[in-house]
Fold:
Amino acid sequence: MDKNMQKYLDKAEVLIEALPYIQRFNRRVIVVKYGGSAMVDEELKRQVIQDVTLLKLVGFKPIIVHGGGKEISRWIGKVGKEPHFVNGLRVTDAETMEIAEMVLGKVNKELVQLVESLGVRAIGISGKDGKLLTVSKKLSGGRDIGFVGEVEKVNAAILRDLLEKDFLPIVAPIGLDEEYQTYNINADDAACAIARAMQSEKLAFLTDIEGVYKDPKDPETLISELKVSEAETLMAEGYIGGGMLPKLQNCIDAINSGVSRVHILDGRIPHCLLLEIFTNKGIGTAIIKDGDTQYYKGE
Structure:
């Protein structure tokens, strides 16, 4: 058999491998939290959007929740301010809030433009639209860090309507409190709240790390499959620290609230979403319920 024919047969094998996953997740909601380097590198950005539009076209119901932290910090620097963070959360005064909303709006419409260019209809909204995300003030270790919101309520009917009308919703993490004050929301928190409210099949975090490590200094300790009880043990025993701690807690909360699977993926790997969802190998870390087994086999 010539090499060209083998190449095409290999492609066919990949498609056949994807078939049971396409069948299993057809018409299911998947929430993609999009952030990190994959938002900054133009080629990676295009590949992520290609992945999500492919998911849409093969029958999934994706929702993108995006961050914009690096871009916000860049614009804050332009006006002569220094970005400040407490426990991974941006300290947000009134001026920073104004900049964050401006930047997130810009990022949101850029993503809409990219999705539309690939032939899928997208609608970009912020959590202010239709009171999609109602928040209260979030404290960090008891400390007031300004206009940072904790999601209290998600108006999921808006997202269901958009999905029903065949749109791909793209959500900017800005919300309103009961007094109609604007708040910045950590994008991980917003994605988790939306995944819980939508009872989504999957929640995928695109990050700048390969996944969850038992020992962050040893790449050999990457955990590909993590049950909720195991994740809680790792956290309690001090193996998980830094920005991964709140992210993992968000993952556990999402699963305990009805989300079937949570994935932590390295957004710097081209097409990481497709590799995780459609192949038997998978990449990154999948967090699953205690009762679930054989994650990559027999599904």
User: Anything to note?
Assistant: Residues 94-117 form the longest helix (24 residues). Residues 294-299 have pLDDT under 50 and may be disordered. The two ends are 32 Å apart (CA to CA). The CA atoms of residues 88 and 243 lie 6 Å apart.
